[in-house]
Amino acid sequence: MRLPTTALLAMTLLTAAGLADRALAWPPDLLPADALPLKAAPRAGAPALRVTPDPPAAPCCAILELRQYTLKPGQRDTLVALFDRYFLAGQEAAGSRVVGQFRDLDDPDRFVWLRGFADMPARATGLAAFYGGPVWLAHREAANATMLDSDNVLLLRPAVAGAGFADATPVPPPVTPSPAPLPPAPLSPGAPPAGHGILVATLYYPFPAQDVAAAQDLADAFARDGASVLATAGGPVLAAFVTNPQPNNFPRLPVREGEAVFVTFQAFADAAAYERYRARVATPWWRGHVLKGPPEVHRLAPTSGSRWRGPF
Question: What percent of the chain has pLDDT over 70?
Fold first, then answer.
């Protein structure tokens, strides 16, 4: 039986789209089961291909804030207690998505956390609801008293579609905030909970530093040249982001502007596992690419209340 010319053409295009999708996908044997595959971003002007959507695993988030706070000496556990008990559930009840909150293992006075949103309008709405709501108003003085600087904030977006964090952990139940201060939470100073692993955030600053396109080019180069190298060494990337160039739509909370960055996140069972991985990475993947300086690395231990605790 002869097929019409239009049918043959349609079959050819569909086959090509499927092959192209498989060609761009990262090798699945190089990624952990719960990691999301990164795909190289198409160049401007390239024809869009219609491909089968990825399996439903709702990545987080289209907009991500990487927030690094410098605290007064000895105040980190106070802020951790406030955050774990009040601010996590309070923000999620207001529409934000807290990916995780962490102690920086290399700086005793640094608190790092990740907050996500579906899009920029959702960010403006969620932030207005939380920072104008009873939970923040009841505890802001205690939280602000721990901080020296809270403006080290990067506004990010996934480096390519599907490159966000896997969203598999149930959302904590919403709270009914009280406008009155609640009893203080018991502090839990000392080492982070065992068995929760560490999250390693690596920040790559391209040159020129303010060039968002250069950050995206670096992300594309990583998908092409670096992802397999890191995975083979035992450090597959869980999520990758680049600077979101959209204007800050909640000026009450400043973000770092006028610079661009490519950020990867990797998970390790503990600090020793990370050191073994580093020993296996003989040559940095970014050699040959122009960076503003050496990559900035943060080893982050999740707090006991963090949603992210390691995909092991």
Answer: 71
